[in-house]
Amino acid sequence: MAAAVASSCCASTSARPLVRRAGSRSGKLWWAGGVRKARLLSISATAAAPSGVDYAAGTGAAADDDAVAALKVKLLSAVSGLNRGLAASQEDLDRADAAARELEAAAGGGPVDLERDMDKLQGRWRLVYSSAFSSRTLGGSRPGPPTGRLLPITLGQVFQRIDVVSKDFDNIVDVELGAPWPLPPVELTATLAHKFEIIGTSSIKITFDKTTVKTKGNLSQLPPLEVPRIPDNLRPPSNTGSGEFEVTYLDGDTRITRGDRGELRVFVIS
Q1: CA gap 35, 10 in Å, rounded
Q2: CATH number of the domain encompassing residue 88
Q3: Per-position DSSP letters for 104-123, written without gaps between them
Q4: Domain count, the chain
Q5: Which range of residues forms the domain containing residue 241?
Q6: How many CA atoms lie within 13 A of 31 on its CB side?
Q7: Going by C-beta distance under 8 Å and a sequence separation of 6 or more, which residues neighbour residue 22?
Q8: Residue 261 lies in a domain
Q9: d(C-alpha 218, C-alpha 214), whole Å
Q10: 176-233: per-residue pLDDT in tens?
Q11: Burial class (CB in 10 A: 0-12, 13-18, 19+), 164
Q12: Would the keyword Transit peptide turn up in this protein's UniProt record (predicted)?
């Protein structure tokens, strides 16, 4: 079988005699049927050198972003469970202040440019912590009604609603007023309307306009009531109707402010 295959595959070549080409001095033999020329196809593939890529580029920025995100979590964890500061001890105040300063430093350590980042102020912000509330009064470091002492007042959620177009700056406070038994407590929302302006680079000045009270719950059908404003000559010197504070940290969902009396406040977008 092997001999037959070999005979078959070689038959076409063995049928043509080998001859010496005329004029050839090399003595090489050629097929009598002609010359079979082999063409060699040379393919050269040249890979383009990769453009210079700096794999370290952006790593620093990403690391900074991760550090800021971690410090935000640390701050929010430090103030959680403090009932917006009403239950804060001196140790809690120190821990929250240290965490806030770490975040402020990680974000650049410089003043916030409110003219550039004005749009980041827009929205409804929920207060998660105020060091001023540790005084156990709704006025913070300024005189205000006490909570849980002489008056049966329970502080609920506190918001700031900021409109950068109309320059409206409203402090919105949910309050529960105790009532004699068997009457249920009265729930209401007080809106302290202000106008604001930017001072310098990172400070905001607010000027009081009016206070509106709206009942909730079973009394929600009652219309809003505008509280008469105290005449300027009867107002305590500590309550001038205006105030200033500095925004020390601001991004799309977290804001830190420090008041003109050193109050630390932390807000998250609502």
Answers
A1: 18
A2: 2.40.128.280
A3: HHHTTSS---TTTSGGGG-E
A4: 1
A5: 67-141+150-269
A6: 10
A7: none
A8: yes
A9: 12
A10: 988 888 888 899 999 999 999 999 999 999 999 999 999 998 888 999 999 988 776 7
A11: middle
A12: yes
